[in-house]
Amino acid sequence: MNKVCEHFGRCGGCKYLNIPYEQELSIKENTLIDTLGEYGQFLKGLQPAPDVEGYRNKMELAFGDEGRDGRLALGMRKQRSFYEVATPENCVLIPEDFKRVIMYVLEYFRESGLDAFYHRKRHVGTLRHLVLRRGHFTGEILLNLVTTSTLATPIAPLVQGLCGLALDGKIVGFLHSTNDGVADVVKNENVNILYGRDYYNEEIYGLKFKVSAFSFFQTNSEGAQKLYGLVRNYAAPAPRENALAYDLYCGTGTIAQILSPSFTSVLGIELIEDAIKAAKENAALNSITNCSFYAGDVQDIIQQHPATPNVVVVDPPRDGLHPKALPHIIALNAPRLVYVACKPASLARDLNLLTAVGYAVEKIEGMDMFPRTPHVEAIALLRRVKA
User: Fold this and answer.
1) In angstroms, rounded to a whole number, what is the distance separating the alpha carbons of residues 320 and 302?
2) Among 14, 91, 250, 342, which one carries the catalytic annotation?
3) Residue % of the chain over a pLDDT of 70
4) CA 311 to CA 243: how far, in whole Å?
5) Least confident of 79-83, 124-128, 179-183, 372-376
6) What secondary structure letter does DSSP report for 78?
């Protein structure tokens, strides 16, 4: 029996909540084939998500109202509305711990009555966002409350009450961020730690990862573990001596560290310096010594470290490989290339470019990381057939 949320069709979070999961997978697989175009023939199937419900380990919620002049609300913004939000007490995508925390925070500010939500047009009010992050395999929870600097409600009792909640996991940090700007975004500025620490721990394949409040980590931890297993199988079927792997757009170095047992050395490159700092810290945490991480543009770092790796793994942003980086990636002349795509349309475009210069697509596999939504990821394995 499918659960149907009362906000289905209005909050925009789910698209397939009203049909069986098997039917959803079939729709997604056919859509993926169409998106890949001529490369759809190489698709080996769409891997189902390990869990269809309660899988989200991060939620960025907005304060608003339940309707025009309605009660204070906290949740997902409704479609085509700047102010109305759908409270997620019955949301099927988030864990029960998140629901308990959200409703506690909401009731606390409702009872206080001292603060209203920040109005994006009139620029009045104080309550802006609540960001929740959770380690699926560790149960550690990190919270970030975002308000303007004119917040009137005391926060200390809120933190104390939250830490006393009966939860399956444990709150390890509570942050308070102030944002007096007009832009309706959560920024890594003016952040104060009111309780605990500013990161939580997660584990993937026995490796530990520190995830800070603003660092990227896959939204579905169990799905990520399955995804990275596919990447590992594509990249390194068996350990090899004197083998080198490049992990491009490596983020906090998750893939690089998972590949490390199968290679003599792994080189990770990422533009964001904070992510590289986290990658180095995580490698040290896991006692991994054969991974090197560099911050900068992919094309620049590649030229500083000329080599022919056994495999190149690319996990680019949604827009795919940068045109300036692509010639340098091709020039590495790696015999094996693994492409992880969060936007299959970008993958299809880049496959045209890669096959034109001597790579051949061997296989593609889809991964449903986001059940009940229209999004899927895809992993492609390419081999160099022409220099």
Assistant:
1) 17
2) 342
3) 95
4) 9
5) 79-83
6) P
The CATH topology of domain 58-204 is OB fold (Dihydrolipoamide Acetyltransferase, E2P) (2.40.50)
CB count, 10 Å around CB of 219?
Answer: 17
Alpha-carbon gap, residue 57 to 220, rounded angstroms: 6
Active site residue 163: no
How far apart (Å, rounded) are the C-alpha atoms in residues 53 and 172? 24
Give the DSSP letter of residue 67. S
Q: How many whole angstroms separate alpha carbon 231 and alpha carbon 208?
A: 18
- List the structure tokens of 240: 């090899």
CB 243 within 8 A of CB 310: yes
Residue spans per domain, the chain: 21-52+220-384, 58-204
**Distance separating alpha carbons of residues 205 and 219, to the nearest angstrom:** 16
Q: Specify the pairing of strand 207-212 against strand 127-134.
A: unpaired
User: How do beta strands 359-367 and 311-314 pair?
Assistant: unpaired
Contacts of 31 (CB under 8 A, 6+ apart): 374, 376
Tell me if 361 sits within 8 A of 351, measured CB to CB.
Answer: yes
How confident is the model at residue 83, as a pLDDT? 67
pTM score over 0.85 = yes
Q: Do residues 202 and 176 touch, judged by C-beta distance below 8 A?
A: no
- Cβ-contact 339, 379 below 8 angstroms: yes
Lookup: tokens for 315: 């996990």
Going by C-alpha positions, the residue among 318, 374, 373, 380 that lies closest to residue 343 is: 318
CA angle 6, 135, 282 (to 5 degrees): 145
Integer-rounded Cα Rg, in Å, for the chain is: 22
From 387, 296, 305, 375, select the one nearest 341 (Cα to Cα).
375
Burial class (CB in 10 A: 0-12, 13-18, 19+), 40: middle
CATH class of 21-52+220-384: alpha beta
